[in-house]
Amino acid sequence: MINMASRIMLVALLLAFAPSAWALGWGLPTGSSDEGPVSGNNNIPWTNLANAFDAGTSPPIGNYSSTYATNSNNAGGKQVGNYADFTFPAAYCDSIGVYSDFGSPTVDYVQIDVWNTAGAGSWQTICGSTPLTGTFPANGVISNDTWTVIPFTAITISKIRFRFHYTASGYAYWLWDIAYHSIPFVPTAPTVATFNADVDLNSAVLQGQIVNDGGLVCTAKFEYGTTTSYELGVVPVVPAGTTYNAGMTCGAFLGGLTTGQTYHYRIDATNSVGTTQGADVTFTPAAPGTGWWVDATGDSADPSPPANAQQWQNRVAAYDDDDQTFATLSVSITDTSPTTYLYLTHNVALTCDKVRFKASTSAAITDIQIWINTVASGWIQIATVTTYTDQQWYEVPFTKTDITGARLRLDLTTGSGFLINIADFDSHIVGVQHCYGFVDSAFSGANK
């Protein structure tokens, strides 16, 4: 027989080795790195980052490890700390957990992003406001010295990064632990968007996007006709591959159309769960108008940034046709002026007559310098914009010329930490240039 003391000991052992909530969903990062100095912050690095994911089997509700990663601001002034990056095998997640020392008023802001692996991948902010303009907002999300669970719409992620804003020097931020919560993945049918066609006298470029692949690879096609029966059939999509992932844009060229005839078309996408038809879009072949707006096809880092300045982050967001995502540049009181350039490029030369942008405003921004890269003369400055409305389109015209890219940078006054963001930066094509839509049989995007 087992006496009472032995029974208590047996129950304790069983509980100690029983599966925990952690084992069912919570996981720890497996790697870490300091992302490097944010523009103008004099490099406030993290130390002992591995201590932030050594919590063992403690769930993010209760205990935490006794060691911590540290971010110390000894440089003086209002500073933005470096991003701490944490990596792990891709997992379908709905929240992260943070246990940190956030009690000091010298830290007034925290930003936490997760890496959404969909498509080419992108950072998604889950803690902190977007867009970030002016002075850093007060933090109201992270609790002091206790686990804080930050939920978000479930996506597949493989990285977490975060940083802090200091209001004074001589303080250290302690990050005790960080964790991510994975849930069972449930695939869905894809979602799609049918875009407006790029039209001229007897032809059109059809455009669409796989907005969400449902977590599975998709096949895509266009249907078209003179009615919503799409009786003229199916059009192969370009790129010529047969599988598409979330965020991918595809197109198709139609020739031999009748001028003045109205056509209907839509994009369809199929995965193993089901097929989704996009919305019906109509177009009527006619003589081309004055032109259309196009996105860039690439970007590059500034090859000669100002001393101690950092590059723009998430540059692809400035030409992703989504004005809710942003290319960003962090600014602190010690930043140089003008800032680093945001470079966007085109994979073929385009005949253009203006550019446009959507940008954040701040009292510390005195103007935005706009440049274009011309085939004839290289980089030339076309404008210094001193007044524009926050996150509203601002157009900059210039004499029609062939360009291969555009860039912008900002002149600043000194000020508190803030984040510059560019939602979109487009070029305006003049005339019929379907060759832009299909370069070496690969779809590059057409009018907007």
Question: Radius of gyration, rounded?
Answer: 26 Å
The proportion of residues in beta strands is over 45%
Number of domains: 3
State the end-to-end CA separation: 81 Å
Q: Structural class, judged by helices and strands?
A: mainly beta
Helix content: under 10%
CATH class of the largest domain: Mainly Beta
Largest sheet: 10 strands, antiparallel
**What's the CATH topology label of the largest domain?**
Jelly Rolls
CATH architectural type of the largest domain: Sandwich
How many strands? 28
Average pLDDT, all residues: 81
H/I helix tally: 3
> Which residues form runs of ≥5 with pLDDT under 50?
1-23, 130-138
Shape summary: flat
User: At the fourth CATH level, what is the homologous superfamily of the largest domain?
Assistant: Galactose-binding domain-like
